[in-house]
Amino acid sequence: MSELEIRRRPVQERSAKTFDHILETAGVVLEETGWDGFSTNLLAERAGIGIQTLYRYFPNKLSVVATLAKRLIEEWDSWFLELGPNWLGRSGIDLFVERLKNQPGGVAIRRAMAASPILRALDREDNQRLAEQFAGDLIVRDSTLDYDDMVLTILVALEAVVAVVDLTYDLPSSKADRMIELCVEMQGAYLARHVPVRIKEVQ
Questions:
Q1: How many Cα neighbours within 13 Å face the side chain of 98?
Q2: Cβ distance 21 to 72 under 8 Å?
Q3: pLDDT in tens for each of the 203 residues of the chain?
Q4: How far apart, in Å, are the Cα atoms of 18 and each of 10, 31, 49, 105?
Q5: 148 belongs to a structural domain
Q6: Residues 38, 102: one domain?
Q7: Overall domain count for the chain
Q8: By residue range, what is the domain housing residue 147?
């Protein structure tokens, strides 16, 4: 069994409620303690369950946070795929930041993913999938584009945006806004050079 896998998926309604309660509590605890202070013992205590009940579903804290991260990644992907490559414009990035900050536990999960190489791998895998999806979307608009080159081009753009966004969480709003503004300016020049298809602003 991988460190990231859960031991058992709930089948009955009562088990599903316990499973969801553990994850909801985990998001709250993670926001309070950060990755380094997060533990299964603390989670079980805060969730009001025995540690053996928690271990029935999750073998370790990596598995708990990975499950949270996968759920959040699925939600992010729905946002990104709805917008397509257009999300790389200013309004698309602003929308991502706003939704992430309003997502319960969203910023805490992002920080945990940055702190753990194993969790960071989930993010990289997802960015690769999105880059492949977006590259396909761009080729529909312009069939002369090279797919493999577009995947790499979009992957660089995705990784750059996510890295900059991750830097803004603890900054004053004025500095965070300026950093996003500079990132968008950089992205605009980069995409104008490497992607002939215009990236539209989200309305």
A1: 8
A2: no
A3: 466 677 777 778 888 899 999 999 999 999 999 999 999 999 999 999 999 999 999 999 999 999 999 988 888 788 777 776 666 666 677 777 777 777 778 889 988 988 888 888 988 999 999 899 888 988 888 888 999 999 999 999 889 988 998 898 888 989 988 998 898 888 888 888 888 765 544 33
A4: 9, 20, 9, 18
A5: yes
A6: no
A7: 2
A8: 67-194
For 192-202, the pLDDT digits (tens) are 888 876 554 43
CA distances from 41 to 9, 26, 38, 49, 106 (A): 20, 11, 9, 10, 22
Are residues 72 and 53 part of one domain? no
pLDDT tens track for 134-161? 889 888 888 889 999 999 999 998 899 8
Q: Is residue 1 part of a domain?
A: no
48 and 99 fall within a common domain: no
**Rounded Cα gap, residues 18 and 167, in angstroms:** 34
Q: Are residues 79 and 176 in the same domain?
A: yes
57 and 142 co-located in one domain? no
Smallest CA-to-CA distance from 70 within 113, 34, 103 is with 113
Q: Flag whether 94 is in a domain.
A: yes
Q: Within this chain, do residues 106 and 31 fall inside the same structural domain, yes or no?
A: no
Instruction: Say if CB 46 and CB 28 are below 8 A apart.
Output: yes
CB 88 within 8 A of CB 161: yes
